[in-house]
Amino acid sequence: MAEWDNPDVELLHDINGLARQAPDWADHLMEYVGEYGTIVALAVLGLWAWWTARRRPDAVAAVAGLVWAPLAAGVALLVNVPIREFVERPRPFLTHDGLEVLVDGKRDFSFVSDHATLAMALAVGIFMVNRRLGLVGILVAVFAGVCRIYMGVHYPTDVIGGLALGTAVALLLAPVALALLTPLMRAMAASPRIGRLVSVPPESVARAGEPDAERQPQDRDLVA
């Protein structure tokens, strides 16, 4: 068939074909992970990054960067709306026979993947503040995209486009976003009621027996 001459379609069948060979429990697991699990994992990484960022010398800027991560994801999803409407690419299972579709109800356009866009924007936002956790997040985002192909609801290029879009929005708009968010976080840090959401006083860190922030260079990764 001519469709097999297309590397995008060939890779789609290769990855989705694993679902046909896998036991039902594995398909259900991949369906849950692809729909919800990866986003929950990124949320946990973001909370972990926030918990440690509050103890850094540059806590205000770091927390501002982490606040930008979910905002970047939201902006990226909004940017994707006109892209989808312009490209108008049908879901792969609507135009290619023989796919194992693990989730019903996906009738909107396929390019680009919302899940991949959302996941990568979150991951890149975390990476700009904490490279170690951010690298884990990027791997989770890529796996989220693979899950969408496995589930039969996206082409590989849908996923690649989503990963690229999420990255671009998170990085390119970060300077403007941080310029707006940093003063807000600074004002919150000065508040006696909610200040600990942004910054933990150094004396509290010392009492807790935590290492001095200057000894933790891996956490001082915010891109100003």
TrEMBL record:
Pfam families: PAP2. It comes from the Bacteria. GO terms for molecular function: hydrolase activity. The keyword Transmembrane applies. One of its GO terms (cellular component) is plasma membrane. It is a multi-pass membrane protein. The chain crosses the membrane at residues 33-53, 60-83, 109-128, 135-153, 159-181. Coiled coil: none annotated. Keywords: Cell membrane, Hydrolase, Membrane, Transmembrane, Transmembrane helix. Residues 209-224 have a biased composition (Basic and acidic residues). SMART domains: acidPPc. The keyword Transferase does not apply. It is found in: Cell membrane. Residues 63-174 form the Phosphatidic acid phosphatase type 2/haloperoxidase domain. Residues 205-224 are annotated as: Disordered. PANTHER family: DECAPRENYLPHOSPHORYL-5-PHOSPHORIBOSE PHOSPHATASE RV3807C-RELATED, SPHINGOSINE-1-PHOSPHATE PHOSPHOHYDROLASE. This is Undecaprenyl-diphosphatase. It comes from Streptomyces pini.
